[in-house]
Structure formats: C-alpha cells, structure tokens
Description:
There is one protein chain. The protein has 97 residues and is mainly β. It has one domain. Helices cover 0% and strands 44% of the residues. The strands form two sheets. The chain has a four-stranded antiparallel sheet, with no helix packed on it. A three-stranded antiparallel sheet has the order 5-6-7, with no helix packed on it. Strand 2 (22-26) and strand 3 (32-39) form a beta hairpin.
Amino acid sequence: MAAKGWTAIVPLNIDCDSGRTDLLSYNAATGRAIASVGADPYGEQKIVKDYMAAPGWTSLVPINVDGHDAATDFLSYASGTGRAIVSVAESCAFGPH
C-alpha cells in the first residue's frame, strides 16, 4: 500500500535508462516529495530520495528544457500565487554513468 496524501504522482526519468518508468510523488500540503526508480521485479519502485520541497505546487509538468540528456526537467506551477519555476536536472544522478 502507498502512503496517503500524494497530490501528484508524475512519471519521469531520473536514472536515464530506457526501461522502467521512474516516479515523483508529491504532497502539496506538506511539500514532501519522494523520487523513486523502477526496479525488479517489474512494477516495483525503489526510493532514491525523500525530501521536503516547497508546498503548494498545483502542477508538476515533466519537460525537457536542456536537451542534453534523458533526465526529466520540470515546470512547477502554483495556481494560488501564479508562481512558476523551471527546474533543470543536473544529470542522470541515480543511473549508470
């Protein structure tokens, strides 16, 4: 069973493999975010980072801003404030190098 309260579960690629889908789970009320990578057996996710992000994002949109690698970048938007930021992945931090 998954944790309660996730307001967004976003497919992404953080390990730059061409296989299983990785996920970002986010709770807009608390700001808690968990990044996980697809793992064996198929359908499993392995948590690679559990952290506190800014609360209040209403949209997390996976995009590719830099075009340099397969790592997913993000557009984050908070409808209550109109704030939007673009986050560019530095590298494929959790994958093969």
